[in-house]
Amino acid sequence: MTRGGWPGSMMHRDEKVVDAWETIFSTDSMTLRRFRMNSTVELEDLSSGQDEVLLVVMKGRGKVGLKSSKDLVELREKDIFYIPKDTGFFFFLAKGSDSNELIVASAPATRRHEPFLRRFAETTPIESGTAPYRRRIYNMVREADKVDRFLGGFVEGDPGNWTSFPPHRHDDKPEAYVYYGMGAKFGVQMVITDEEDASYLVREGDAVFFEKGYHPNVAAPGTGMNFLWVISAPPDRRNLSVEFHPAFEGMQSGATHLKTRAGST
Question: Within a 13 Å sphere around the CA of 205, how many CA atoms are in the beta-carbon half?
Fold first, then answer.
């Protein structure tokens, strides 16, 4: 179930769909879908069409192949594989993996780039912030990568801490968070715009899409705010430039992947 109604954002509650596609969001800038493989062992005859695609393994292991190549690439948990436009591909469970959860992000593209793999286990996290807003940032689809729109990675917060803090916004670059690794506990995702504020209670598997606004979040004690983040930026503004909320001027953000936009406080 996807609901909106507040300026600049909407939320999708995990529908727990198995062996079928679940559409999380579909917007002009980005589409997110999920497939949980249980009895399904292969997704075949897939195509990126006019979009570029990110394959993200959230649970389990699988293998991806491009129809233009005989090579297969094994994807492990939280690996990200980039697929360019006009590319046929397929995905199947790796031997020994009895289930899998796959997120597929797609965004309109005009240029065709080379596919690439980014492994979570080989990505050095950025240790950011201090209590009560300490987290680890895994920057996996980066500014230097040759893609049209996407930036992305993972954030894993300390239990009971804030993330995306101090609050920041990038109203010209839509973003989605997909939450994971929270167990039965929950967190609160906030969206603060010039028009109105919104708060969403989020659990593992839920997602929130931000078209605009500051978007800090906080975890309940006993769990961290852990999420996949995917940005779909206009090609001429594909960067990690942000504006920080003026109420938190002077608060130390610590090490970060973000860049302060000129004029930001």
Answer: 17
- Which pTM does this prediction carry? 0.94
- Beta carbons of 172 and 239 less than 8 angstroms apart: no
Phi-psi region of 120 (alpha: psi -120 to 50; beta: other; left: phi over 0): alpha
Beta carbons within 10 angstroms of residue 69's beta carbon: 11
Q: What is the pLDDT of residues 206-233, one digit of tens each?
A: 999 999 999 999 999 999 999 999 999 9
Query: Which residues lie closer than 8 Å to 246 by C-beta, 6 or more apart?
Result: 265
Residues of the chain with pLDDT under 70: 1-7, 253, 261-265
Round to the nearest angstrom and report the end-to-end CA distance of the chain.
37
Closest CA to 252 of 157, 166, 153: 166
Same domain, 88 and 166: no
**Domain containing residue 228: CATH number:** 2.60.120.10
Number of domains in the chain: 2
Residue 265 lies in a domain: no
Report yes or no: 142 and 186 within 8 Å, Cβ to Cβ. no
Q: Name the token pair of 90.
A: 């397929």
**For the chain, how many residues are written?**
265
